[in-house]
Write a structure and sequence with these properties.
By secondary structure, this protein is mainly α. The protein has one domain. The chain contains ten helices and two strands, in the order αββααααααααα. A hairpin with a 2-residue loop joins strand 1 and strand 2.
Length: 210
């Protein structure tokens, strides 16, 4: 269930952490994880993890019984919780750690969601740090990352534009640009690549018809 969201060398650690997560769900939801999933590329490997998990958070009961790396895995998993406060709690803990590269997909993904307090917390944590590792990941996943930027913008437009009237000063925009490395040129390159891919596909179809 959670193995595909982490490198293979963490298999034993992920197995241990997954075994500590209770089967009880919030509001007695009948599924533990959503059918929708998130997919990225990292170090030429496909990383996949649930869009949401519904398992209740019992991390305070088990956190002292696991290694630092296993704590990091636990925080990553619970950053996908259906409860926004749980997501925020575990992202905060993750950002306080010397997190490894495999945690970066979870940090980036949570920041395209609608909880502005999470964006503020993440920006405050990262704004003085060297975020080159995160920027490298975002470049590697430029298609998904540009969609995340658009998603963040849409939430601003839907929920926050009256409170934060100047989008250029909106914390989500600052986070994506200053800490994650978003730029218009990245968007243009993505669109150009999509166009080239589409042209290649059309050429391939014409060859098949010939």
């Amino acid at each position: 269930m959670f193995q595909e969201g982490f490198p293979n060398y963490l298999r034993d650690d992920v197995t241990k952490v997954a075994g500590l997560i209770p089967t009880k769900t919030y509001n007695n939801v009948t599924i533990g994880v959503s059918q929708d999933s998130i997919q990225y590329i990292q170090d030429k490997n496909v990383i996949t993890f649930p869009y949401r998990i519904y398992y209740m958070d019992n991390s305070d009961e088990v956190i002292d019984n696991v290694s630092e790396r296993q704590k990091m895995i636990l925080h990553c998993i619970y950053s996908r919780s259906c409860d926004g406060l749980v997501r925020q709690k575990h992202l905060y803990s993750l950002l306080q750690m010397d997190y490894e590269d495999w945690a970066i997909p979870y940090i980036v993904k949570i920041c395209d969601e609608y909880v502005v307090e999470i964006l503020e917390m993440t920006y405050d944590s990262l704004k003085e740090q060297d975020t080159d590792r995160i920027k490298k990941f975002c470049i590697e996943n430029s298609g998904a990352f540009c969609k995340s930027y658009s998603r963040m913008t849409s939430y601003w437009n839907e929920y926050y534009r009256y409170k934060y009237k100047d989008f250029h000063q909106y914390i989500g925009r600052k986070l994506f640009r200053d800490c994650f490395g978003y730029s218009k040129s990245m968007e243009r390159r993505r669109k150009n690549n999509n166009t080239l891919t589409g042209d290649d596909a059309q050429k391939h179809k014409r060859k098949l018809r010939a």
